[in-house]
UniProtKB/TrEMBL annotation:
InterPro entries hit by this protein: Metallo-B-lactamas (IPR001279), RibonucZ/Hydroxyglut_hydro (IPR036866), UPF0173_UPF0282_UlaG_hydrolase (IPR050114)
Residue span(s) of domain Metallo-beta-lactamase: 7-190
The species this protein was found in: Pseudobacter ginsenosidimutans
SUPFAM superfamilies in alphabetical order: Metallo-hydrolase/oxidoreductase
Pfam families: Lactamase_B_2
Classification via NCBIfam families: PRK00685.1 (NF001911)
Protein name, as recorded: L-ascorbate metabolism protein UlaG (Beta-lactamase superfamily)
Organism domain of life: Bacteria
Length: 226
């Protein structure tokens, strides 16, 4: 599988010949100025929750590409009202079969609201299970013992975890989360975008390494094989 990082918590995974985009927030990110959203490929867009820094560019990308946008019921309803033609609801505990594999929505301990303050449903994470491998995107979350259930659903080849602290897990909890889901490879997201979530990258990589876990911190726009 190939993963491309677009900054903050936005990334794309190429699996089964499809481009699966998660939490598109690019045009509002000063660190991602060099990324042109008109060039981003997407067959599916998964949105973990309603905060602007996870869905700002979802409508624009979906309308250009014809991608199907998937999220909890409130997100599904919202994107439908925004004129997105292809939408599907996926609430926590539910799983759905796609042409690239199976996706299950799982618990994420985090708040969720639209920019006007209205309710955006509960936050979620996603477990993707395919013939090429499986991965877990936790979405914005704190550490929770519910993560143990992820390993019962799939053997996780890599996990995508927030590591910036303050609003989500930090380094220590992300390491424990990797242990709970049984993976030795983590792609770190949700750091450096705002002043209070900046991290020391070299120190973070070393701390993960000392725990026996590989931490990948791709540059914005960089593609890695995982």
């Amino acid at each position: 599988m190939k993963i491309t990082f677009y900054g903050h918590a936005c990334f794309s995974v190429e699996v089964g010949g499809k481009h699966i985009l998660f939490d598109p927030f690019i045009t509002g990110n000063e660190l991602a100025k060099h990324i042109n959203i008109e060039e981003i490929k997407a067959d599916y867009i998964f949105v973990s929750h309603g905060h602007f820094d996870h869905m700002l560019d979802a409508v624009a990308i979906a309308n250009r590409t014809g991608a199907t946008v998937i999220g909890g019921w409130e997100l599904y309803s919202y994107f439908g009202r925004q004129g997105v033609k292809n939408t599907l609801p996926l609430n926590i505990g539910g799983k759905a079969k796609f042409d690239f594999g199976v996706v299950k929505a799982v618990v994420a301990q985090h708040s969720s609201s639209f920019q006007d303050g209205s309710y955006a449903g509960v936050a979620a994470g996603f477990v993707v299970k395919s013939e090429e491998g499986s991965f877990y995107y936790s979405g914005d979350t704190g550490l929770t013992l519910d993560m143990q259930l992820v390993a019962r659903f799939a053997t996780i080849d890599f996990a995508v975890f927030p590591i910036g602290d303050w609003l989500t897990m930090g380094i220590d909890d992300a390491i424990e989360a990797a242990r709970l889901v049984g993976t030795s490879t983590v792609v770190g997201v949700h750091y450096d975008t705002f002043g209070f979530i900046r991290i020391e990258k070299e120190a973070a990589v070393k701390q993960f390494e000392e725990a026996g876990i590989r931490l990948l911190l791709p540059g914005i726009g960089e593609t890695l094989s995982v």
